[in-house]
Amino acid sequence: MKGRMSRPRLLTLPTAALAALLLAACGGSSDDVDSGIPSASAPAAEAVTATTEVEGVEAPAGEGEAAEASAPAGGADELPEGPKLPDVSVKDLAGGSLSVADIKSEKPVLVWFYAPHCPYCNEEAPKVEAFAKANADKLTVVGLGTQDSEQEAKDFVAEHGLKTPRMLYDESFASWQQLGIRSQPGAMMFDSDGVSRYTWVGAFDEQQALEVAKRLT
Prior knowledge:
Number of domains: 1
Distance between the termini: 23 Å
Strand content: 15-25%
Strand order of the largest sheet: 4-3-7-6-5-8-9
CATH superfamily: Glutaredoxin
């Protein structure tokens, strides 16, 4: 398989743009290198997903594949800093709500971006569960979903037996917008300060993720 509590201002997508996101295919192709993610988040070699612009929102298009690049050599200081975990209120699918900013921890946090309708997310979900369970001592895995509905997100969690990752749902899409996420699946690794240090567009590479987490520890 080669993310202070306050009430946020919700960002509203144009109806046509939201419809396009709901209907669009997931992921992308390694033939087109255009992540749509701020360049500070990760080296360009990691971004392998093509995106399509729809009324100001780049919607996913094509088939998702894992990034081929290895994590850059060196220490944590050589991993570029990207956006921070946003102060956006989201639903915890196990109950309650919280700010995305509050998921940071002493261990590195891998945020996995999913949408319940996405076939590639459905394919990757059991692998995410297995990875999170096997490496719980090394990093924390959090799923951050949007699109579809909260009930569909809960059904997605139940269908795939997602018990180890903390599964969240953002009906506003605001957290994805603030992090520059425009397609799914994808992932970001965050350090203990809640700053993104590495980005995958498409399925994340397990060994690569462990290498990055080790450098951030």
